[in-house]
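Quick start: read one record
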Amino acid sequence: MTPLGQPRQEVLMDTHSTPLPAGFHDIPSTMLATIVTCLEMTAKPVPRPNPPGQDLLVERWASPTLDEYRALYRRVGEDWLWVSRAVMDDDKLAAIIKDPAVEIYVMARDGEKLGLLELDFREVGQCELAFFGLDESLIGTGAGRILMNVAIERAWEKPISRFWVHTCHLDHPAALAFYQRSGFTPYKRMVEIFEDPRQTGKLRADAGRHHPVLRSE
């Protein structure tokens, strides 16, 4: 699997926002719009088996530097238009990734970091699957199942009653089904509109080829 279910902008998600009226809504060519689906599980599911024959290691990343963190974040997320942590102010990012209630894990092969998992326990009684992404080389190998099994196990080790995530149609097309197979249930759908980071130089101009850039005349 590739990056699944991540916020494009690092903002507090308001799941009680005003509904859009039915119909078509113009989006400026400098902006992107995406359908966001929120999912949750309220009990630990029966584990799904890991695929055999993998030489991948998942371990806690206790103290990444900002440069190390951003490098892996871009590696797994830039082609899926992840931007928030790539451009976040250093102090704000450091406060998040060094928070004891935020757990970061990496998936590695022979010492090379190829996957990112971030669990956010800052909200009492629940865990957000904040970031979950793999390098392109791991797509279709079963690595996503291995990483998700770790995510579920680590999340439910804590005294939580809810584990949740959100995904959108800019993510891998298999993301939503993958989350549902993993035990998450959809409960909310929203529209997110944000500045196209490829047009401002925040991401590569050729990132996110599955969602083309609109060039104004």
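The chain has one domain: 33-44+54-195.
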